[in-house]
Amino acid sequence: MTQGDARVCPFEQLSLSSADTNQLQLVLKAILEANLGRYQDFLASDKGKANPSTWKLVKTTHRTRVYLERQHRPSFTPFQAHSSAASNDPVLQPFLCVGSTSGNIDDVMLGIVNPPPACVNDLSKATLLSTITLPTTANPFQSVEMKWMELSVRSRLVKNHDYVYVEVTGTRHLPSGERVGYHLLHSVDVPVARRLPDCVRAQLSVCSFFRQESKTSVAVYTLGMMDTLDDRARRVIQPHFVNILLSTFKRAPSVDKKILEKRDSEVGTGVSLSRGNCVTCSKRPWRLGSAATCNVCSGFVCNSCKVVKELSFMTPELDMTKRRVIFCSSCAIDENVSEFSAAETSSCTSSWGTAHDSDLRSVLSFS
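That's the FYVE-type domain-containing protein sequence above. Prediction below.
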């Protein structure tokens, strides 16, 4: 295996005892409640915006801002029981992501629990080790699963990092009655999931909440940290993971069934798409030149208005291939054709730049 390549999961599915399952559920509930409290404080005290005295902006991408915590005092990490042991740890920094994505809460949650084939990354390829809670008809997004994931960084200086963690998803209501979705990733220590050669076993604790801020927009909030065990690796692993995580919250461009149904109804009722004018700017035929066709609505678009993106698709042979896809401006917005969902390799290899080293303030704890 060459450096940076991801491997097939070497672990078999695990069977947890009832006692272990109950204990894990209690721990996860405590972590989720603690994070929900922080999220409510963020909405109430900070008005849903990052406090510049606490958080340093390190990256702005599309509709999301990524921050690292400004460090003022040493504290303990959520991966240790005693703060006295934290002094020997490498420098860690919590990160905060604040932004929005198109659609509604159900769209976002569906993309998390069932990623579309076009959106393939290290997180979506994580291997299921054990299912603890299954979705139900009443709670289709409620799930608790133990997984193994390897982050493939493709770097000669930094080894791949792998994680054994529990993923928790679902929806609930705030005291105000407002519905929110949640997504929690928290590392667990499973002895049978042994450490692998040429790979660093690391830890993470990341919690996201999603709130409907308008009819077509969902507010995204993510607070987390990653223990990469090495400061140099942190500067590579953490930005890489955040890009992957945020891309999971974006709907991949696809031929939506509603759009197809609308198109079929228009054809059935005799409503035809104009072959003479651009569907965006309505230019006359003689000004169109070599017109293209939107891959979603099949409308004609001129060279000035067409949106071209290189997207990844899964072939019937389960191979990944890239293809240039043409959209009109309207479909590009409706389907959220963004830098997260298109040609993600460029964003995944990007860096936040140099960040100030510091100690970790307690942000995600078991209590």
